[in-house]
Amino acid sequence: MVRRTALREGLVDIDGARIAEATEQLRHRGRATLHDRLHRVRMAGGLAVQAGLAAGVAYLISHKVLGNPQPVFAPISAVGTLAASVGQRFRRTVELIAGVGIGVAIGDFLIYLLGTGAWQLGLVVTVAILLTIFAGASVAIVIQAAATAVLIVTLSPSTQNLEIPRFVDAFLGGGVALLVTAVLLPLNPLRVINRAARPALDLLATQLDITADGLRSRDRASVQRALDRLRNNKDELNTLAEAIEGAKETSTLSPARWHRRGELIHYAEAADPIDRAMRNTGTLIRRSVTLIEDEEPVPDPMPDAIGHLAESVRLLKQEFAAGEEPQKARERSLRAVSEAGRAYGAGVGFSGSVVVAQIRTTASDLLVASGIEQEEANRWIRTAFGEQERPVGEPAGPNEAPKPPTAPPVG
Length: 411
Known about the structure:
Layout: H1 2-8, H2 14-65, H3 73-82, H4 89-114, H5 118-134, H6 139-155, H7 163-184, H8 189-217, H9 220-231, H10 234-253, H11 265-293, H12 301-321, H13 327-346, H14 350-369, H15 374-385
Helix pairs in contact: 2-3, 2-7, 3-4, 3-7, 4-5, 4-6, 4-7, 5-6, 8-9, 8-10, 8-11, 8-12, 9-11, 10-11, 11-14, 12-13, 12-14, 13-14, 13-15, 14-15
């Protein structure tokens, strides 16, 4: 009753505003979650179709051509090969066959000596794992050898002559998986990379924009949120790295994609610089938080420079996707450095000088990602930064105002 009376008298409904804000946040989070899920479905759509086709083809060949009445292992091997990390499928096929061979040999030998049973099963699995580890095999071979040994021990009493079909089916399933990915249904490597690169580059650009706006308004909370979000970038970077490896594998195995090899060079060479740009941007944002906390000056060109970095990332994404030389992205990176030089000349504090340094370093990373050699990129950075780059303690000219006593940024 008091609340309704207060509302009738024209007072502000504080709780209502809080509820509305919370509802809007939940709605935004729901849209973001749905968008992320749809993106993951689009990313995995090609793999799902490839896996279904490979499983069906492997089943038909094993059952109809080889006469296997229960062709279980062939489609399992095909799907297992395709489920491997993109870019490692050829290696996974070899590991699959090697693991099956080791498991069959160990299982048969110990069954011949000891018979079958629960303790024999445990011993077979233990020996298979220890021997493969002793031989220096990969984790995939160890798991496959142990799994095959289990199948041999458990199914041998009811199924005769299981060993050869198991080995043949493993070879068949892996081969069919490679056939599907290389010949029957090869994915467009550039399209795969573009989809994988989009989340990583969008994340980087968005957090740079938020940081620029936060510096303009001295909003520490928003800059801190940008830092927290950028720190959780492992998924985006791992997806990009796997997509690049998968594109390399596809362009190597698939005759239909051989002409794409040259176009993949940009992405392959850009992966490491983009990772470094992420890390250096993290330092940039962290020092921006400190800058606001310490109430240091924020010259107008400083947030403008960070905004230009964000636009450079977007242009890099667009020009890579279009298969163009990333000239616009390079120009925008150099503009960011030029604005950082103006900010440094206007006067910055200690954290501000670090932010300027990280703008330079991140711009250098983006130039290298665009295909520029590191030394040339550093030379361009120094030129764009201009005359503001004076060592600490060097006296100003007779008609010049002295620069603030902060450490100059380095490239």
